[in-house]
Design brief:
Mean pLDDT: 84
Largest sheet: none
Order of helices and strands: HHHHHHHHHH
Helix content: over 70%
Number of domains: 1
Shape: elongated
Radius of gyration: 21 Å
């Protein structure tokens, strides 16, 4: 089997590994959490339909429900590492006959793929819901649906570009407590959560309009960002690579069981 095939086998293994023994032993089973989430989603949809029927819903406002997406990506990274310790499989994972750079990078790529799948599913489901409202409820039109789609793309595409950085941040947050750098863990959480909050701000120096401003606009433009946003995303990828290298180093030289 080629080196590339082995590596992608590790990525596929990570994509299929979702169980967490510690969470499964909690009082509230995973199935019940799924039921709670479905009930909450149904209640949210019912509320939006109610406001739409009363012509009080500006469709792009629906994207406000995804404002926690950057934190979700960080937690995907956290769970990828933490799951090994929760399941007490960290010894098995770290002694696999592959470079630790492969093991860590496979988790990182699997987390990015999983997050992109979730964002894609949310975009498709949200667009379908907006089209349902736009084409069936009087007072809404194709222009409203177009505004919804534009705001969604303006929010999700940059977020996808930053996903490698957010995933690496989460993995570093999760790995640090199991190393001799444990005392720095609270500080890292504070710094990284502060960085996530930047996604809700207006980077006026770069002409970046926040998601809240765009959703409130009556005619948002598609991808209203200057070229600097690409430079920022590229810098984020470079920082993500540095984080991955640091995680590999910590798990190789600074591990503390």
């Amino acid at each position: 089997m080629s080196t590339t095939s082995v590596f992608w086998s590790l990525v596929r293994h990570e994509l299929s590994s979702t169980g967490n023994r510690r969470k499964s032993n909690r009082t509230v089973a995973r199935e019940w959490w799924m039921i709670y989430m479905l009930v909450a989603a149904a209640a949210g949809l019912a509320a939006m339909l109610y406001f739409a029927l009363n012509h009080q819903l500006h469709l792009p406002y629906i994207w406000y429900a995804t404002l926690g997406a950057p934190y979700m990506m960080v937690m995907f990274g956290v769970n990828g590492i933490k799951r090994e310790w929760d399941n007490e499989t960290q010894g098995w994972w770290l002694t696999l006959p592959y470079p630790r750079s492969w093991l860590v990078t496979a988790k990182w790529l699997a987390g990015i793929i999983r997050a992109l799948k979730v964002m894609g599913a949310v975009f498709v489901a949200g667009t379908a819901f907006a089209m349902l409202i736009g084409f069936t409820i009087s007072g809404y039109s194709l222009a409203d649906v177009e505004s919804f789609v534009v705001v969604g793309l303006n929010w999700l595409l940059p977020l996808a570009g930053f996903s490698p950085l957010l995933m690496a941040m989460g993995m570093l947050l999760a790995a640090t407590p199991y190393t001799r750098l444990r005392p720095l863990s609270p500080l890292l959480w504070f710094v990284f959560m502060s960085v996530c909050s930047l996604f809700y701000q207006n980077f006026e120096g770069f002409g970046f309009r926040g998601i809240v401003d765009q959703a409130a606009s009556t005619a948002p433009g598609l991808l209203p960002y200057p070229w600097e946003i690409l430079a920022i995303i590229a810098a984020g990828w470079a920082i993500a690579g540095a984080f991955i290298g640091l995680i590999v180093h910590l798990l190789h030289k600074k591990l503390s069981f």
